Amino acid sequence: MAQKPTIPKGTRDFSPFEMIRRNYIFDSIKNVFIKYGYQPIETPAMENLSTLTGKYGEEGDRLLFKILNSGDFLKNIDRSDFEDSNLNKIAAQMCEKGLRYDLTVPFARYVVQNRNDITFPFKRYQIQPVWRADRPQKGRYREFYQCDVDVIGSNSLLNEVELILIIDEVFYELGINSAIKINNRKILAGIAEYIGQSDKIIDITVAIDKLEKIGLEKVNEELVQKGLSKESISKLQPVLKLEGSFKEKFAKLREILNDSETGLKGLDELKLIFNQLDKLELKNNLALDLTLARGLNYYTGAIIEVSAQDSKIGSICGGGRYDDLTGIFGLPEVSGVGISFGADRIYDVMNDLDLFKEESVSTSQLMLVNFGEEEGKFCLGLLQELRKAGIRAELYPDTAKMKKQMRYADLKGINSVLMVGEEEINEGLFTLKNMKTGDQEKVDLNQLIGLFKSE
Amino acid sequence: MAQKPTIPKGTRDFSPFEMIRRNYIFDSIKNVFIKYGYQPIETPAMENLSTLTGKYGEEGDRLLFKILNSGDFLKNIDRSDFEDSNLNKIAAQMCEKGLRYDLTVPFARYVVQNRNDITFPFKRYQIQPVWRADRPQKGRYREFYQCDVDVIGSNSLLNEVELILIIDEVFYELGINSAIKINNRKILAGIAEYIGQSDKIIDITVAIDKLEKIGLEKVNEELVQKGLSKESISKLQPVLKLEGSFKEKFAKLREILNDSETGLKGLDELKLIFNQLDKLELKNNLALDLTLARGLNYYTGAIIEVSAQDSKIGSICGGGRYDDLTGIFGLPEVSGVGISFGADRIYDVMNDLDLFKEESVSTSQLMLVNFGEEEGKFCLGLLQELRKAGIRAELYPDTAKMKKQMRYADLKGINSVLMVGEEEINEGLFTLKNMKTGDQEKVDLNQLIGLFKSE
Questions:
Q1: What does pTM read for this prediction?
Q2: Are the beta carbons of B68 and A99 separated by less than 8 Å?
């Protein structure tokens, strides 16, 4: 026997069992998107590398999967570059295309390319796989799905409110008790301004981000290392120690940011969002979290991140407002806000917490036992009647031993089997067996349809 | 303004309008698959090139998209190979992975890799994109979807019968009047045997395949060129001139193939399939077509192809029986039979023939006009009530001019808008406007829910 074939590391096959669970997640998310007025688009798996490169930082560029040009891919390669192993230059000359790395950059490209055909504000959702040449590890894959929902061309904060409602509804539907954290880039900028270190906003946020993990003392040490003055660090302490309800935090920040126009604007934005949501009674917990700084390089307003309360798997959803995403493709000043659900991590969380319900659409409702050629032929007609009534039904295709056929139904999770032997055919009465209880009853076609149609 | 970004040639973006139509096709196909007891799987976009190479002929190998290895992709490349432009060798050393070319080979790989966890007969469907570095032209794309449905591990001809029922139901559902053609590899082998040219079966079939296009005379010329003896060509004439109903063709072939065991077996298989289907009253036309020879290199029994009656777009579905597909991966003697629906071509056919119905799930049922900050806030609460009732509704996010908001609803195909101004809020009665007729009426929340829930 030859060696078993394999798949590339970091990729996965999905069995029917897994597919049904995954589709349950995708459908739940999609249905909420649609209910909120978002419409689907899809973009190609391959984008020009000129579209992708430089959008995800140096690390991101390294993680792009590049596709070898068809035909003579060596034709532009200099011998000297080959001898010097000039990898970046050679790769750029041999590969024009790459696999998409996320759905945000392709979306920005789509909007710019199709801007004359789009009605703004454009509310779109997109559910497709993305690829990253990351080192595979538990919960990190080289091919995984993102479920993105964005509005582009509207400055209204009602969009942020609605996106949080979407998050709340999706995780409520899925049964995941989740913690929704929100922050605002303008508040972070205001804090940096307040301590007189506007240029160090990223260092400050990175340090704050580690607070929970390494503690206040070590964060302060790191800030010293990053070159913050003693005075700045001292001024930062009340921010680092910020505690309490949203109202308490808000009041304290209002004092601190009193002289920062940007900071106050961020606070106003946040307040509006909180006030709105307060009235709408979220089912999941929402809290201000100043340590939240994801994607700081392009978010300009709200920053959102969600994790499951009872799981150690990290972020399962995140996003924010970006005031100039399409600028990179030549269409400036179009504001967007969006979030992305990580379907693969949501799957892992639901698996870990045993949140999947037994799904009924997973398999046929009924299997007809195959008693022989003549009976099999009769069954085909019967099946068509059942299917016409919308019932999912199948005939075991071969005339195998009863035990084998029963085992098939059992393994496939089919709850009912129907015996259609010669006698049954003559009588027009078939024996229906419940696979769970073992109960049997005699039914005719109409009764059969009645029984399963109501399921 | 920078140059507009583009996408790789042969690939496409799908707008919301196109997505809704595409999803209608996918859902129709999927629902039939499920009703017939097939279950979904998915495989990764990337496969090891060792899995893909050599499975699609030389031409196919050339059309595989190869993915550049991460890291130092030059490390195994010999300088002499570089200087000789030894493209195949270098590509094989620089690229371990490629994009899948179809769904059949990944399925075979899946079955062998997971054979211990699979319940046979394994009835699976798979709907995913495939990639081919073909020269793009009308109706031919570099990224397109296949919708495959296969049974593996069953020799029963009932599977062929059911697959044709699936074809019949899918195209009936989609409203495509289609021509289903069927042939059998064993009959073709029998004919080659009968004329004493078993070794020339492929040349014979290729020539027969051109009959409609170039006529009998030219086909005979081609057969001479291919080295068939005068006697063989003469014996082939009755086959080439075969006409009439299935029964007539069948009777004639029975005479001709009387001494070919293989040929007779093929005829028996065909007869069983036809007889079964005859009783089940297909809605589309089914005919024996001896010129049908697609994928002859791996089909061993039935060969099936479908085209739309009223369209010049070619094959929209095809497949057949392959007795040893998994043999290439070390699991011999597992028979399979399957068909593949070409969703992109089906889309083109339906577009050309104007077969798409106006879809109601395409967009929000209702848009709330945004009259200002306070009214907007009120609307959020209203929206939650509507959505709780399962109604797709949205609020225009910005307080733009009425005309702009109306234009948005119109372009997005939203049929109803709701005016929620200060007065309306105080009264608890909102003005509902039908965008098509211009009619207006006053409704309260309960009436509103009643109106749209029943849609």
A1: 0.93
A2: no
